[in-house]
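Incident log, support desk, overnight shift.

02:14 A customer reports that sequence design results differ from what the structure should imply. Their input is reproduced verbatim below. On-call engineer (initials T.W.) acknowledged and began investigating.
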């Protein structure tokens, strides 16, 4: 007998006697009320502390604000997100360590530092791996990216979604760069990640790994000659003030990641977990869209501020120079490199 037939039988039997009518009416009311009960659970008021190392002009902050808005809307304000920009809770490694022990709830973190906690994330740092943003999105949002994102749980973190830092480019204060030999003798800050260090040493630069907060001071003081970052970061941090030359090498596509403390994640109600996961995914997509929209305008403003921009360097020469990086690290990532290369093709 199907549900409708059973319900009809109950309704008919409600007329048999006053006692049965009362008893079965209550049963009928219970059956009708079950679907409403599934949505009646109240969301526990919660405040999430989200940290970044960027200023409020950066796309990490744009992504964080979008996430904040979506979570508030979907929970009717029961879950609030408090954003801490400008490295106010520490550099990215410190933020990640804070998430591990539960003193920071979440952050939007550059992929490079994350790779120091889970080796497999370094595969995304290999130079010239992705020919386009679309190819990167396909890998990161697909099976490969989600497998690697899941490995964060092994180190007491919860990966939510891949946002974007973008394709990285070289700036310096000394002279124009068109080919690898132009990097010889230059001291460049790189992310604290061995793949970055080896990539730029193969290109001939003196690669110095350091936290971004330290790099900004070093650039201003002239103790380093340059750095490498996507256009959005170069623009957001006004690097035209210290860096006269920008070369659009697009040498590494750098994801950013919405990451949460696993203890904080486990403390959320299941309904809230779903909301947080969906909000992170939507905010990540929004950040990507904003990066694409803003890049041309940002390049124009950097040029107006005095930067000399080389938009067509000798990419083939750069690709050839970093071949030893693939030889050194290719086997380190299991089958991930091969799977990515096959998907990109």
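02:41 Re-run completed on a clean worker. Output:
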């Amino acid at each position: 007998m199907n549900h409708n037939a059973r319900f009809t039988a109950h309704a008919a039997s409600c007329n048999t006697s006053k006692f049965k009518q009362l008893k079965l009416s209550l049963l009928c009311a219970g059956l009708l009320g079950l679907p409403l009960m599934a949505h009646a659970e109240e969301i526990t008021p919660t405040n999430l502390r989200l940290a970044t190392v960027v200023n409020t002009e950066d796309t990490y902050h744009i992504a964080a604000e979008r996430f904040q808005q979506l979570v508030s809307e979907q929970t009717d304000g029961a879950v609030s997100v408090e954003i801490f920009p400008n490295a106010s809770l520490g550099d990215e490694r410190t933020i990640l360590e804070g998430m591990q022990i539960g003193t920071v709830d979440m952050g939007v973190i550059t992929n490079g530092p994350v790779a120091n906690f889970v080796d497999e994330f370094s595969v995304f740092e290999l130079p010239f791996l992705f020919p386009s943003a679309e190819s990167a999105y396909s890998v990161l949002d697909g099976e490969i990216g989600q497998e690697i994102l899941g490995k964060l749980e092994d180190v007491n973190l919860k990966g939510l979604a891949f946002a974007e830092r973008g394709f990285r480019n070289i700036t310096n204060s000394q002279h124009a760069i068109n080919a690898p030999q132009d990097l010889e003798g230059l001291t460049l800050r790189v992310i604290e990640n061995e793949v970055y260090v080896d990539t730029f040493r193969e290109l001939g630069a003196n690669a110095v790994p350091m936290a971004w907060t330290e790099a900004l001071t070093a650039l201003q003081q002239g103790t380093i000659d340059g750095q490498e970052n996507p256009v959005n970061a170069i623009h957001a941090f006004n690097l035209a003030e210290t860096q006269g030359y920008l070369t659009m090498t697009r040498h590494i596509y750098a994801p950013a990641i919405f990451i949460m403390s696993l203890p904080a994640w486990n403390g959320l109600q299941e309904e809230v977990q779903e909301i947080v996961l969906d909000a992170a995914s939507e905010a990540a997509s929004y950040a990507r869209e904003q990066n694409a929209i803003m890049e041309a305008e940002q390049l124009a403003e950097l040029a107006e501020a005095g930067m000399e921009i080389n938009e067509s360097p000798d990419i083939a020469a750069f690709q050839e120079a970093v071949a030893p990086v693939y030889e050194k690290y290719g086997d380190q990532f299991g089958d991930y490199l091969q799977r990515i290369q096959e998907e990109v093709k």
